[in-house]
Amino acid sequence: MYLRRSLVKKNGTTHTYWRLVRSVRRNGRVVQQTVAQLGNLDAQERAAAEGVGRSNDGRRESNGVMGR
To answer: How far, in Å, CA of 47 to CA of 28, rounded?
Structure first.
């Protein structure tokens, strides 16, 4: 899972929103599925959300290298 940024323009101002997204295979194609709408996040909140995404993506992490 990973974070995806969405830029939305409202009344001349650009707003940044974040979604937690995972890749899934459907009918032989890889598509992205939104797991959660996270809204406007600061740097610390983004880092925490990325950690949650890494811990829940079904892969193991060993010594900073993703497992196979």
So the answer is: 32
pLDDT, one tens digit per residue, over 27-60 is 999 999 998 888 887 777 777 777 776 666 555 4
HSE (CB half, 13 Å, CA atoms) of 14?
4
Contact yes or no for 20/29 (Cβ under 8 A): no
At residue 6, the pLDDT reads: 87
Q: Are 48 and 35 contacting, i.e. CB atoms less than 8 angstroms apart?
A: no
Tokens of 13: 């101002």
The runs of H, that is alpha helices, within the chain are 43-55
Considering the entire predicted model, what is its pTM?
A: 0.59
